[in-house]
Amino acid sequence: METLVAKDLTLGYGEDVIIDALDIAIPKGEITVFIGGNGCGKSTLLRSLARLLKPKHGDVVLNGKDIAKIPTKDVAKQLAILPQSPTSPEGLTVEELVRQGRHPYKTMFKRWSPDDEQAVNEALEATNMMELKDRTVDSLSGGQRQRAWIAMTLAQGTDTILLDEPTTYLDMTHQIEILDLLFELNEKRNSTIVMVLHDLNLACRYAHHIVAIKDKKVYAQGKPEEIISGGLVNDVFQMKCDVMYDPMFGTPMCIPHGRGRCLIKQAVEEAKQQKMQPV
What whole-number distance in Å separates Cα of residue 239 and Cα of residue 223? Predict the structure, then answer.
């Protein structure tokens, strides 16, 4: 069963077409990652799936209904999106930010409710942000700040979460922290998570389903272990590499070719030099 489906989707800005006649289905309850070269349309596609960009042609279907015909608040109760590098007003606390996730449930006559309070507290607990709830967002580290924003999307109470490059500008420790958090949310809540990631090895490690985009269309999609190959990486990223299995996780791991300090080559050259020395 699919949560999000795009049918014959064409996207662009002005006269420029970024995605052309694309068909895609996002598996329900799984982690899907979009990969592809810079400017291939990954973020554009994500924005369209969240109804932030109107298609030039085609449709996006959310839980069996045309997303263009669903009222905005109803969309926000089913799907949350976290854009790349979001910003908040100066001085806003973590708790105040997370409370904004409950906005789709507000009406002129409905005040803050125990259900709203529970949703916020559960989101803070799930992201390990409860102890930081009174801190201002701008005082947090990069990883903490990203967890605060993810908490806000969780408070929104949707089954589907879209994230545009959630690990951008984070160091290795915080990248793994955020991806582990999202993996746990998928396992514990059966959340459908769709992400754009640049690190191909991390995409293979965390994704159940990968969608590779090239030339405005889906080049390949499926389980990482079924589609990731040296040929795919060369075609999609114009980069030669060897693909082997990660010894810890058993997922595909790409070893790119290129210049650099090669210890194996250095050892071979040193051995040759030793053999050439006169005795």
Answer: 21
Q: Name the pTM for this structure.
A: 0.90
Question: Could you give the angle at the alpha carbon of 93 between the alpha carbons of 90 and 94, nearest 5°?
Answer: 125
CATH number of 49's domain: 3.40.50.300
First to last CA, the chain: 73
Task: Please report, for residues 47, 49, 82, 250, the alpha-carbon distance to residue 11 in angstroms, rounded to integers and kept in the order given.
Answer: 10, 11, 20, 36
Which residue range is the domain that position 207 belongs to? 2-276
Share of the chain above pLDDT 90, in %: 83
H helices of the chain, in order, are 42-49, 72-78, 94-99, 114-126, 142-155, 172-189, 200-206, 224-227, 230-237, 263-276
pLDDT tens-place string over residues 62-110:
999 999 999 999 999 999 999 988 988 899 999 999 999 999 998 767 7
Decide: 185 and 179 in contact? Cβ < 8 Å: no
Closest CA to 188 of 110, 105, 126: 126
Could you give the CA distance from residue 246 to residue 203 in angstroms, rounded to a whole number? Answer: 12
Of 84, 82, 63, 48, nearest to 155 by C-alpha is: 82
For the chain, percent of residues with pLDDT exceeding 70: 97
Buried-exposed string 125-140: b where 16+ CB fall within 10 A, e elsewhere = ebbebeebbeebbeeb
Q: What is the pLDDT of residues 162-171, one digit of tens each?
A: 999 999 888 9
Q: What pLDDT, in 10s, does the model give residues 230-239? A: 999 999 999 9
Structure tokens at 42: 């990954």
What distance in Å separates the CA atoms of residue 180 and residue 54, rounded to the nearest whole number? Answer: 32
Number of domains forming the structure of the chain: 1
Tokens standing for residue 80: 């949350």
Across 7-16, 104-113, 184-193, 264-273, least confident range: 264-273
